[in-house]
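RECORD TYPE: inverse folding
INPUT: structure tokens
STRUCTURE:
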């Protein structure tokens, strides 16, 4: 399982990064959405994240 770093409200990380947060709707604080700016363009970020998740599932053991 791969997650996107998400500074959750009430945490020290949230306080430290509050000025950088670009998404304030808590419905997006799912650990799979970027609420901070990404280095990659948003569309490319999610394409690569989806590919990473897919690759991880292919190698998962049951």
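DESIGNED SEQUENCE:
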């Amino acid at each position: 399982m791969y997650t996107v770093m998400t500074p959750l409200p009430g945490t020290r990380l949230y306080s430290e990064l509050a000025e950088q947060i670009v998404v304030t709707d808590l419905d997006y604080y799912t650990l799979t959405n970027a609420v901070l700016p990404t280095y990659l363009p948003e569309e490319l970020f999610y394409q690569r994240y989806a590919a990473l998740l897919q690759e991880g599932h292919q190698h998962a053991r049951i």
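NOTES: Residues 12-58 form one domain.
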